[in-house]
Amino acid sequence: MKIADACGIKPERVGKLARGEGAITTYGKIVTIADGLRIPGRLLGLAPRAWESNEAHSEAILGTASMSALGVGRMGPEYAEGEAMRRREFLAATISAAGSAADLPVPDRGRVGLADVQRLKERTIRLRRLDDFLGGEHTYPIYARELSSTSALLSRGSYLESTAQALLGLIAEQAQQAGWAAFDAGRHAEAEQLYRVALRAATDAHDQPLIGNSLAFLAYQQISTAQSGVETATASCERAGSDAPPAVRALLFERLAWAHAKAAEPKGAEQALAEAEAAVSSAEGDQTGPDWATWVDRREVSIMAGRCWAELGRPLRAVPVLEQALAGFPDARARDKSLYTSWLAHAYLDAGEVEQAAAVTERCFQLALGVGSVRPHERVTTLLNRLKPYGSMPKVAELMEYAAV
Known about the structure:
Number of strands: 0
Number of helices: 19
Order of helices and strands: HHHHHHHHHHHHHHHHHHH
Radius of gyration: 21 Å
Shape: globular
Distance between the termini: 39 Å
Structural class: mainly alpha
Number of domains: 4
């Protein structure tokens, strides 16, 4: 009933949406859901990010009271995975046809002003929240639609040079987000194309942080397709510049650290992590950074450090960092938690702690259920293959049966 009231739909339609029948297509209702993901007392009621509320803090991302709107308690290892899946499936259903929405809050023709671009930017920020809880398979259509609409506005509208520059910057942001969703869905060719669109738009907008972020996305793409991303990731930091907002520097340097780790360059990884840690420390309380970089905080940098050490075969450094960082990470962000937890399992295996690795892999598998992203599933498959030689061990055998391998 609370979901129906919040979305302005009939209660019986909620059940149909949860079963994948029909979809909510209007931006207004979609953004109500996106807002409900982070506003206490609304839908999922997840607490806002630290920069959005003075009351939020890193260990209170998910509050018991805020979850009461759906009649469930605080998420944790004991949380029923079926409930988590159903909630994600409902959210995915509500936006599955969003690509057909045509309710841009700006005129189809005539002069476009900076105020119009600002409204579109706010819309993009709010829809970006969906990426925290849904995979690219579900978000790609809506992000691609936003990009297409803004690009059409740029080509057909009438505006001053300052507005054109603002539109180009917005297109760069939207292309990055759409590219990320395509990447998350395993559509690598489309992801690379969108990142290059973002790079061109950011260059034309003369926005150095956005140029740097476009290059960082391209570097991440290269790494995921068995290429070295070190050169491109290094260029991303250089192009953004030393005067980029701290949150931007933290984001770009942590991705540079990952590029070095994947290239088996521990010294480069450690240096980049130090830069990221210094940047994120100076970012605390800073309100000047762009929205697309504000998700990078101390926890995210710690998780990246753990991932780097796991990739570099240094489990004694990776395990404590990942365990501490993941201890308070919300299950609602199932895709990210499954991915991050997979590196903990990876490190346990490297340390010879097979049973613990199997237990953590099982948790990764549970979190990945119903997530519209290929990445956690690929990571779980890799871990299961690594565990197969230990199939005679009870915990591993139990995992293999559970995963039906």
